[in-house]
Amino acid sequence: MHTRRAAVLPLFLLLVAPSGKPAAAPPAAPATFADVRAFADAYCARCHGEKAQKGGLNLAPFADEKAVLKQRKAWRGVAEQLASGEMPPEGAKQPTKDERDRIVKWITVTLDAADARDRERPDPGRPVVRRLTPNEYNRTVRDLLGVDSDIAGAVGMPDDTVSESFDNLAAALNISDALTEKYFAAADLIIERLYAFPAKGPKPKPGALPPLLEKLAKPGDAKGTVANLARRAYRRPVAAKEVERLLTLFDRATRDGAPFVDALKPVFKAVLVSPNFLLRVERDHPKEENAYRASDHELATRLSYFLWSSMPDAELFALADRGELSKPAVFDAQVKRMLADPKARALADTFAEQWLQLKKLPQARPSIEFFPTFTPKLRQAMGDEVRTFFDRLRTDDLPITDLLEADYTYVNADLARHYGIANVTGPEFRKVKLADANRGGLLGMAAVHALTSHTNRTSPTLRGKYVLDVILGTPPPPPPPGVSAIDEAKAPKELKTFRDKLAAHATRAECAGCHAKIDPLGFGLENFDAVGRWRKSGGDVNASGRLPTGEAFDGPKELRAVLLKKKPRFVENVTEKMLVFALGRELQPGDAPAVKAVTADLEKNGYRFSVLVAGVARSFPFQHRRNPREDDGGGP
User: Fold this and answer.
1) What is the 3-state secondary structure (H, E, C) of 283-323?
2) What is the pLDDT of residues 293-305, one digit of tens each?
3) pTM summary value
4) Which residues pair with 409 in a beta bridge?
5) 60 vs 117: CA distance, rounded Å
6) Fewer CB within 10 Å, N side or C side of the chain?
């Protein structure tokens, strides 16, 4: 008896703390990738493995930590879903809290460490060669030669395939034989307009130059004229042999009897179809093994096409020639100057139009048969509201978060009448204070409502997808193969409202997970009809929703309050989108520190628009480049 008690006593003492309470269990060892792999196999593989990839996520191919680091954004999403309890979904096999916490910690610590290494050894990403988009082509021809018209449209240049929402990404900017023919046709049209005298006006004197040529040609100085043209068109200093090659065209024309001005025509054409004009080419530094700064002329070109969608102006050229543009104070001053220039309206006409999907507005589905006021004129006003709002963020240096929570907007008489706002007359857009808190921000703008509706009704699914994709940058996956749209005519008669029919559709196993995330967000906008007119709740209009994470809301005002809790994600998304637009390529894992730095500055500085633009322009990948590597993959 005594012997047994003596054996038990040491064990008892180990389990009892000095206070008399049981001692805490020793902390679990940190998780390893093997633990993550086992966790995924146990709790995730059914929905995110080889047989099913819900949400477009397949965790099966991730064989080691290196593979995880190549898909950091996806794995941060995994950590967020696990930490919030959203995954595994209700009804599925659930891990313990300790299991969940260990895996979330491993993912977070591993990715944060990789980001820290990237900050120590930053990578500006694979170098790209970017062709001018049709929009950039027109603007560049305007600033280079003074020909201000839609030349690209006139000769039928095709629109570029949009990738990551933007048409200026290098991967989409190929050159086909058909496009090459368009460039030759465009050059001929530009020269025709360059050499034209005004149709109305006094008869030109003998020997007089057409007005546009007066600014470009220096009679008697062929070399100076050609050198200046080539330097500006190529957006960099030109070598003597490049000038001589162009001068041979001029000399040949003069030998054939052409006067000075006419002898320049073949030079203009050669310049306009040159790869040096059509492509933004940056030169490698073969002796450099690591990242290096872009040259001042390359930086000038990057900055001008980012902010103006056009070539550098004389001031940028002069600073680049003197090697001063790369000085931080000088660079910051130029960003400020360029943002204040009217040409920076291009950010609204290119970046915002594509990010917010306004290019789709002319083809928006609501029909005049069901919505008689939805005329082309009103469509235009809807799009102009969004563009004007975004551009005023720039001119007034307002917070980008106003896109979510503004209590004002910009309307003309047509749009004010549509919204029920009194005392607005005329076609000009003006700022108005919104009396209805449901109308503020992007999600209160009729352009968004029309873009996300069908011919005769709203679409909660399209609207919810817009919120996830455009506003938060977390797009849902495409519907599974074989899943069709709802056929309302074949729906059971007991399903009276479209919401009931959608709920029945969303009960299908392959649809339920995504619809649970998408549809509630769209329901919150149901008070807006297909063309953005307000309608009260009641009857068929039910604007209540509940997200899988438990947040409930009723109507646009309450939905916006839920989205404002996700403000950091919204700000990060806007930053990512603008960095993609500025760099001309998709983001890579090594770009994460740049995104974090910009979002941190935004939070410290009231989310002002200028802070976003300056942060992107100052970022390491924007100001640096490296030579191509074998692991960069294909593409331009």
Assistant:
1) CCCCCCCCCEECCHHHHHHHHHHHHCCCCCCHHHHHHHHCC
2) 999 999 999 999 9
3) 0.86
4) 432
5) 26
6) N
CA distance 248 to 232: 19
pLDDT at residue 172 in the model: 82
Amino acid symbol at 354: Q
Task: Compute the chain's Rg from CA coordinates.
Answer: 30
Confidence of residue 492 (pLDDT cuts 50, 70, 90): low
Name the burial class of residue 61, with classes exposed (0-12), middle (13-18) and buried (19+) by CB atoms within 10 angstroms of its CB: exposed
Q: Is the pLDDT of residue 2 over 50?
A: no
Q: Which of 138, 440, 190 is nearest to 308 (CA)?
A: 138
476 within 8 A of 55, measured Cβ to Cβ: yes
- Backbone CA torsion sign across 39, 43, 45, 48: negative
Q: Which residue's entry shows tokens 């018209």?
A: 149
Cβ proximity of 284 and 628 under 8 Å? yes
Peptide bond into 342 cis (omega under 30): no
Helix axes 328-340, 314-321, angle to 10 degrees: 170
For residue 5, give Cα distances in angstroms to 1, 12, 17.
6, 10, 19
Q: Which residues contact 316 (CB under 8 A, 6 or more apart)?
A: 300, 303, 304, 325, 334
- In the predicted model, what is the mean pLDDT of the chain? 89
Collect contacts of 59-65 with beta carbons under 8 A, ≥24 apart: 62/37, 64/33, 65/33, 65/110
- Predicted local confidence at residue 635, as pLDDT: 44
Tally of residues, the chain:
636
DSSP characters over 495-524:
--SHHHHHHHHTTSHHHHHHHHHHHHHHHT
Q: Point out the least confidently predicted range of 19-23, 206-210, 603-607.
A: 19-23
The residue with tokens 């530094």 is 285
Amino acid occupying residue 245: R
Q: How far apart are CA 198 and CA 210, in angstroms?
A: 8
Distance CA 227, CA 269 (A): 15
Question: DSSP character for 432?
Answer: E
pLDDT of residue 9: 37
Cα separation, 453 vs 462, in Å, equals 7
Residue 88: phi and psi, rounded to 5, are: -60, 150
- The percent of residues in the chain predicted with pLDDT above 90, rounded, is 69
* pLDDT(163) > 70: no
Q: How confident is the model at residue 201 (pLDDT cuts 50, 70, 90)?
A: confident
Find the helix or strand (DSSP H, E) in which 278 lies.
helix 275-278
Alpha helix (H) ranges present in 474-618?
Answer: 498-505, 509-523, 556-564, 567-583, 592-604, 609-618
Would you call 628 exposed, middle or buried from its count of C-beta atoms within 10 A (0-12, 13-18, 19+)?
exposed
Q: Which range, of 95-104, 483-492, 496-505, averages the lowest pLDDT?
A: 483-492
Q: Tell me the pLDDT tens digit for each residue of 302-332.
A: 999 999 999 999 999 999 999 999 999 999 9
Give the C-alpha separation, 127 to 440, whole Å.
Answer: 41
Q: What is the pLDDT of residue 478?
A: 75
